[in-house]
Amino acid sequence: MYICPHCNKPGIGYVRKIFIGLRFPATCKACGRKVHNNGLKAMLATLPIPVSWVVTEFFLDKSLFEWLLGIGVITMVLLTSFWVPLEKESKY
Ligand SMILES: [Zn+2]
Questions:
Q1: How far is the CA of 39 from the centre of ligand 1 (A)?
Q2: What's the gap in Å between 30 CA and the centre of ligand 1?
Q3: Ligand 1 centroid to residue 85 C-alpha, Å
Q4: Tell me: the pLDDT tens digits for 7-58?
Q5: Does the predicted TM-score (pTM) go above 0.85?
Q6: How many domains, in total, are found in the chain?
Q7: Residue 21 Cα, ligand 1 centroid: separation in angstroms?
Q8: Range of the structural domain that residue 47 is part of
Q9: CA-based nearest residue to 22, from 1, 3, 46
């Protein structure tokens, strides 16, 4: 579990963190307060997906799109898991 920025205890599940959005904050299992991913970094973490499309559309054989898209999705999940920090939801 990830450490909650409110209570500094493990309260956010690994899978839940990937699906946290600014409009859909997660609830800490330890303290019950809301947390979300850093908005800018969460947005940047999605870039491997459009990049995989652009690379196969303009630079590589289109039959490689599914492979590159898969790599893009895995990269997005890894970036969201390990690079995007959790932040306190200020109104809770
Ligand atoms: Zn907490």
A1: 19
A2: 5
A3: 14
A4: 999 999 999 999 887 678 999 999 999 999 998 999 999 999 999 999 988 8
A5: no
A6: 1
A7: 17
A8: 2-88
A9: 46
